[in-house]
Amino acid sequence: MSNEENNQDKSDRELITLIIDGDMDAMGDLMARHSSKAYQISYSILGNKNDAEEVTQDAFIKVYRALANFRGDSEFSTWMYRIVVNQARNKYRWNKRRGSQVNISIDKDTETDDGSSIPFDLPDTGKKPDHEIIFKEWEGEIAEEIKKLPAVNREALMLRNVKHLSYEQIAELLDCKIGTIKSRIARAREELRKRVSR
């Protein structure tokens, strides 16, 4: 049995231990396991395929560099998705302030703190059927109206309706109370109803 097949059976925490010990195959497996969800979260906040790919890559780089500090107080996926949300929010604010003309290649190798180089190629997200369905759902008038919602309400709505996270998961991910999440989603839905029914 190959190392790759062995890693597929390992938990996130087991993979993290291997990565900290220098096993880059384990990092590739961890990325493959979570890249689709990370991309979907990024896309739900940014609404742009290239930006979402860039943010997903940046988030994995940040995750890699911070793995030694992961204490395990929460699930790895929750910790990682918080990083994704924060990176996507930063990119969204940057786009609003400066525009989105500058894009960074997702194929470029990344330098680590010790000067070595790591390839961080993301899986081809464009060919996955679930992504195609998501893109089709966001086309047209509703997609444009969703983009106009306040960022905090849009994030909560997209995580609930597109990612199908529970209110509890969204509250943990966005670091706020469940009541706040329910309120944000309700306001987003009501605002969408008003905009679309005009």
Distance between the termini: 60 Å
The number of strands is: 2
Query: How many separate domains?
Result: 2
Which ranges are low-confidence, i.e. pLDDT below 50, for 5 or more consecutive residues? 100-110
Structural class, please? mainly alpha
CATH homologous superfamily assignment of the largest domain: RNA polymerase sigma factor, region 2, helix turn helix motif
Major β-sheet, in short?
Answer: 2 strands, antiparallel
CATH architecture of the largest domain: Orthogonal Bundle
Main sheet strand line-up? 1-2
Morphology call = elongated
Written overview of the protein:
This protein is mostly helical and 198 residues long. Helices cover 68% and strands 2% of the residues.
What would the keywords be for this entry?
198 residues, two-stranded antiparallel sheet, 2 domains, mainly alpha, 2% strand, elongated
What's the topology here?
Layout: H1 3-8, H2 12-20, H3 24-46, H4 49-66, H5 76-98, E1 110-111, E2 117-118, H6 129-138, H7 141-148, H8 151-161, H9 167-174, H10 178-196
Antiparallel strand pairs: 1-2
Helix pairs in contact: 2-3, 3-4, 3-5, 4-5, 5-9, 7-10, 8-10, 9-10
